[in-house]
Known about the structure:
The protein is α+β, with helices and mostly antiparallel strands. The protein contains ten helices and ten strands. The chain has an eight-stranded mixed sheet, with helices on both faces. Strands 1-10 form a two-stranded antiparallel sheet. A hairpin with a 5-residue loop joins β4 and β5. The chain is globular.
Amino acid sequence: MTTFELAKPGQFIPGGTMSWWDPAAECAVTIAEPAAAPDLFAEYHRGAVASYARFGVSDAIDADTDRCAADTALFWVMTDVDGQVIGGVRTKGALNSPEESHAVVEWQGQPGESDVRSMLAQRIPSGVIEMKAAWMSGGGDCSRHRAKLHARSGFHLTALLGVDYYMATSAAHTLERWRSTGGVVAPIPATPYPDERYETKMMWWDRRTFTVHGEPAQVASIVVEVARIHRRRRPVAERGLSARTRGVLSTHRPRIGTTDRVG
C-alpha cells in the first residue's frame, strides 16, 4: 500500500507560500497561510462567496474575509495564465475537538449528530483537517483536468500539515466528483443543510487507505505531487511560523502503520 512522508516539526512552506504549474490543467497551484498572501486569499474568498450566492446558499459561508482568514490554517488556489483565481479551497485545523468542526453545526439536532461527533473524536488524535468553501469556475478545454486537480487539493494540505485524515461536507451530488481521490462517504443520514433543498453528507479521506478507494490515475498523481511538495519544502525557523501552524506541527503526530478504514 502506498503511503507518503508527513510534515515534521520545523518544516513548512518557504516564505509562507508554495506554488507550481500544472501543465495538464494549464494553471498554477498556490498553497499559503492567509497572512502570507492576504490579497490572494481575499480574491479566493470573493470567488467562494460569489459561488455560494449563485447556488442560493449564501448563509452557508461567512462573507467576512478577515473572520474567514482567522479560521483558516492554509488555503489552496488555482490561478490561470492571467493570474486570476479560478478555484480553491481552505482548511480548518488540525482540529482539537469535535466542537471545532462545522460539521457538528450542520448535523445539530439531526439523526447522525452523535455519529459525527464520534467519528471526529476517534480520528482527532491522529490529526484531522476540515476542507471548507471549495469552488471552481467552469468552462474551457481544461475544465476536466482542473476538476481532477481540485479534487487532489486535500492531499496537498494533508501532507503539509502532517495529519492522517481530512473531511468535508457537501451536497451528495457535489461529493461524487471528489470520490476519485479515495474519499468515502460516511454511513450516516444526510442532513438538510443549509436548508431542506439539500441533503448534505460527510466524506472522509485517510492517507493510509486512499489507494484502495481512489481512481488509479488520481492516486498516481497524488503520490507524485506529494513527493514534489516534500522536495520543495525546506526547514525554516520556528519563529517564522504562525502560532496556529506551530501548534499543529507540535501537537499532532500521525499513527504510522495502522490500517483502520474510514466508516
